[in-house]
Description:
The protein has 244 residues and is an alpha/beta fold. The chain has two domains: 1-55 and 201-243, no CATH class; 58-147, Copper homeostasis (CutC) domain (TIM Barrel, Alpha-Beta Barrel). 36% of the residues lie in helices and 18% in strands. Helix 1 (9-17) runs parallel beside helix 2 (38-47) and helix 3 runs parallel beside helix 4. The longest helix is centred in the N-terminal third of the chain and has 16 residues, at 67-82. The N and C termini lie close together (9 Å).
Amino acid sequence: MIEICCGSYEDAINSYLGGAKRIELNSALYLGGLTPSIASLTLTKKNTDLSVICMVRPRGAGFCYNNIEFEQIMEDAKVLLENGADGLAFGFLNEDHTIDIKKTMEMVNLIKKYKGEAVFHRAFDCVKDPIKSIELLINMKIHRLLTSGLQAKAMDGKDMIKILQENYGDRIEILAGSGVNASNVNELMEYTKISQVHSSCKDWCTDVTTSGEGVNYCYGPEGHKNDYDFVSKELVKKLVEISK
């Protein structure tokens, strides 16, 4: 299974045309991915047969949320599920870098009510004890775990991913993400024995109105001053083909 990380409806269409079967739908990927718009979800469900996992995340930075943020998260989750999301990606941590069991269980119960998939995202990569944490997630009936093995890139965390797959892969789906592309996907899958990967298949497109004489709205890295990122249909095709 190749899952593509999408930041818009256009990204979803490019993923679909590239041969993907499942996407994680977000907004604001430059912040690590935030809750997507309802329009991007409904248009994707209307015009593709993709399985759509929606991110539920109200802001950038970490995953320790106050009561106001959690109220918004749960309302967003309900609305996304009511509008066709096949599952939700989320993550709740305490200040001591442990899983927030209460909030996680509330989310899982809501998702199960709609017969969706509960996916704990890369908040997991900030926990102090990955073994205790994955056991908690399994006990809470989390369907899938997205992880880079507690490292910035999945290839760097491949040893941890392998451990998680070997010891827990029969009880929870392990989805490896961050830095996965056509050049390393087979090596990663062969080493870890995972069967699912998560990739952005990112490329850049220029919008010259990103900057003016005295202001700019740039967020791209060096060399992409006036660019925004998008999912490349060609990179999706390449990833899908090479991983068959």
